Amino acid sequence: MFRALTPIVKNLLLITVGMHVIASFFLPQLKNLFALYYIESRFFMPFQFVTYMFMHADFWHLFSNMFGLFIFGPLLEQFLGPKKILILWMVCGIGSGVMYSGYNAYKMGKLNNSIEAFTANPDPETFNRFVSQNRHMFNPSIYDFVDNYSRNPDDAEIQEQAKRAMLEIREGQANIPMVGASGALFGILIAFGMLFPNTQLFLLFPPMPVKAKYLVLFYGLYTVYNIFVSNPTDNVAHFAHLSGLMIGAVLVVYWKKDRRNFY
């Protein structure tokens, strides 16, 4: 698998690593500017659907994505050609950002509905339910406030404090950025698994051989599992990973319809 780097893969590696170095050591403001935010966030800009792919949270986040591109990208570029490998990377990256934004808008809509329900009928039970659903974003001291509110359900000042707390959570949720090329990488993974399904890969952890199609299947099932479990403390954008898999699969199926288009 460690074959010579092909031109597009090499340039993607250089650009992404270079952007990480610049954002980490010279222009740290780039990470916030180029990250992808919720579309109604005051920090959102349309160009972030492209730029977020070239920002990473830390070295290990960068390493895992670039290592995957380094391993799977060259053979795909040799088979598909430079134009298609670039299309695959960019379309899966941008597409997963767009689809994740839609998923995020759905979650924010549920959050807004909870706040609107409380505003229309402020009561401790509704607020307590909101706190339980978003407990990972509250300070532990919120439970003292919940107890106080339960004992004083008609206190207008406490009701207003509860509403402000809910709006602060909404603001914080809206301004959580997404960075990384994982959506693009998952497009590469599904393409590799579909085009070279029986290629034997040797895993590092655990050290064992596995066919490409089974590795991709594992990643897909693991991603779906994490979406359904929806661990509130998990800061990985699993839906973006799944989106990259789906978009990559659609592209490969489309290209395979006419093999004359492979070059």
Automatic annotation (TrEMBL):
- Domain Peptidase S54 rhomboid, first and last residues per copy: 47-106, 175-254
Question: What's a GO cellular component annotated to this UniProt protein?
Answer: membrane
Record keywords, A-Z? Hydrolase, Membrane, Transmembrane, Transmembrane helix
What is the protein's name according to its record?
Rhomboid family protein
Instruction: Cite a single Pfam family from the UniProt record.
Output: Rhomboid
Q: Which organism is it from?
A: Cyclobacterium lianum
InterPro entries documented for this protein? Peptidase_S54_rhomboid_dom, Rhomboid-like_sf, Rhomboid_protease_S54
The family this protein is said to belong to: Belongs to the peptidase S54 family.
Q: What is the lineage of its organism?
A: Bacteria, Pseudomonadati, Bacteroidota, Cytophagia, Cytophagales
Q: Read off the SUPFAM superfamilies from this record.
A: Rhomboid-like
The record's subcellular locations are: Membrane
Determine if Cell cycle is one of this entry's keywords: no
Per the UniProt record, which residue ranges are transmembrane? Answer: 12-39, 59-76, 85-103, 184-205, 212-230, 236-255
Topology versus the membrane = Multi-pass membrane protein
Q: Which GO MF terms does the UniProt record name? A: serine-type endopeptidase activity
Signal sequence coordinates: none
